[in-house]
Each structure stands twice: as structure tokens, then as C-alpha cells.
Amino acid sequence: MSFVYKKRLTLFDYANYSLLTLISVVCIFPIFYLVMVSLTSKDVYVPFQFHIWPQKMSLDAYTYILSTKSFLTALKNTVFVTVVGTLLNLLFTFTMAYGLTEKNMPYRGLIMGIVVLTLVFNPGIIPNYLLVKNLGLLNSFWALIWPALTNAWSLIVVKSFLDSIPSELRESAKIDGCTDIGVFMRIILPLSMPAIAAFTLFFAIAHWNTYFNAILYLTDTNKWTLQVLVKTMVLDASSNMTGNMAASTDDQVLPQETVRLASVVLAMLPILIVYPFLQRHFAKGVMLGSVKG
């Protein structure tokens, strides 16, 4: 006979669950309300009135935004910066971290010291701007990618992760005739999938949400990223993009508020879609190396 142990909930458990539920509602409700307003039909939309569920839904705002050249151009720019930037971030971070795990690497301690030094001293905005300007990267997508190929925190975390991989695996592969690149490609990378998945999301979110650097380095509106355009649509009422919001395919006026909030939803939707697919790798990455026999 098998017995199923059922834990009795205490007063603390009820209070804890209630608090977590309240926090979840506070975090989720603004996003839910934002989506509902963006789906509200122009026939029933009334400004400055609060409705949790619209009386009539419509996709007119999304249809209009996805038909505008400005939004599609910004979306294309952001996708390019995110995809290329994330791939280069992963390449440079993992290759450099792998090199720093090799105890026979020349000047390994000096390089690691320089990496740690950047955690303490930040050059600031002006030196970074002058660097990008002198490299000829102003008004270029590479101004958002090259200066941020990697960072000290990512290097240290990835190096610690790679240090947890048994060195015997590398030695046995080299005895079988595998080169350093072969060890990295065939041994290190397959065993580093949890870390790769986690940092893929970290880097992708950072590039997707690029705003300040885009404002600083990009002056051509055709090279704006999505976050800059959304900010312009939401806050700058005098912008051309916002001024042209009162239009639709059937020559009826669309509320500016529904169009603005629809643009916000479209800006954050890709990350919300990608995140669940990488969640299982996060759990594995957290547990990896936590128990040692």
C-alpha cells in the first residue's frame, strides 16, 4: 500500500501565496490592459474611460501599424541588430571565456585582471561616443553592435561555467588528435547549451531594447530601432509618425491611443514569444553544478 503525503498549508503559506498572487496581478494587469485597449474597436473607444474588457474588439490598429513603412523599417532594423549582435556576442563571449579557462594561455592573469577592472571603472558616455566617432561608426548599425561585443560580467559568468566542465574531457579529446578549435566545437559547446540558451536571451533582450545608444549614434530616421520609434509615437505628439496615426485603410479615423498601445504590444511581443522556449534551459543551467558528488 502506498501512502501519499499531503502537506497541510499553514497561515504563512496562505499569506505567501496571497502576496505572490497580488504581485503577479500587479505585474500582469498593465500588460493585459494595454493589450485590451489596443484591441478596442474605433466604434466603441472613448478616451479616458477605463474598461477592462472592450465592448467590441478589432485588429484595425495592428493592421494599420503593420502597413506603415516607418514601423516595418524600424522592425527590420531591430531584427538585424538583434540577430547579428546576439550571434557576435555569443561568439566573442564564449571563445574568449574558453581561452581564459586554459591555464597555459600566455598573459591569462593580466587579461583577466583587465576584464575585472572594467567592472570597477566605466569610461562614461563621452569616451564611448568619441570611440564610436573615431571608428567611423556614427549613423551605422555597427555602432550598436561592435562596442558591445561582450562585457565583463558575461565573461566572468561564462568562464565560471566552463571551468565546471571536467578538464579530463578536453585532455582525452586532445589525445585522440582533436585541436583546440575541435575541442571547443565538439566538447565545450554541446555541454554549454544551458549557458548558451540563457545568454542568448540576455543578449537578445539587450539588443532588442536598445534605445539610448540608438538615440546617441543614429541620426537618420530610416535607421531608427523599434524602441526609438515607439518612444516617438507614444511620447512625441508632434512627430510625423504620431501625426499620421489618425488614418486607416477604410478612410475612417483610428484613435491615436489604440495605435500607440498596439505599437507597444508589437514591440514586446517577440521577446514574450521566445522566452518560454528557453525557460527549460534556465532551470537546467541553475541546477548544473549545484550538486557535486
UniProtKB/TrEMBL annotation:
<dbReference type="Pfam" id="PF00528">
    <property type="entry name" value="BPD_transp_1"/>
</dbReference>
<feature type="domain" description="ABC transmembrane type-1">
    <location>
        <begin position="75"/>
        <end position="278"/>
    </location>
</feature>
<comment type="similarity">
    <text>Belongs to the binding-protein-dependent transport system permease family.</text>
</comment>
<dbReference type="InterPro" id="IPR035906">
    <property type="entry name" value="MetI-like_sf"/>
</dbReference>
<feature type="transmembrane region" description="Helical">
    <location>
        <begin position="143"/>
        <end position="162"/>
    </location>
</feature>
<feature type="transmembrane region" description="Helical">
    <location>
        <begin position="183"/>
        <end position="208"/>
    </location>
</feature>
<feature type="transmembrane region" description="Helical">
    <location>
        <begin position="110"/>
        <end position="131"/>
    </location>
</feature>
<keyword id="KW-0472">Membrane</keyword>
<feature type="transmembrane region" description="Helical">
    <location>
        <begin position="79"/>
        <end position="98"/>
    </location>
</feature>
<keyword id="KW-0813">Transport</keyword>
<dbReference type="GO" id="GO:0005886">
    <property type="term" value="C:plasma membrane"/>
</dbReference>
<dbReference type="InterPro" id="IPR000515">
    <property type="entry name" value="MetI-like"/>
</dbReference>
<keyword id="KW-0812">Transmembrane</keyword>
<feature type="transmembrane region" description="Helical">
    <location>
        <begin position="259"/>
        <end position="278"/>
    </location>
</feature>
<dbReference type="GO" id="GO:0055085">
    <property type="term" value="P:transmembrane transport"/>
</dbReference>
<keyword id="KW-1133">Transmembrane helix</keyword>
<protein>
    <submittedName>
        <fullName>Carbohydrate ABC transporter permease</fullName>
    </submittedName>
</protein>
<feature type="transmembrane region" description="Helical">
    <location>
        <begin position="12"/>
        <end position="35"/>
    </location>
</feature>
<keyword id="KW-1003">Cell membrane</keyword>
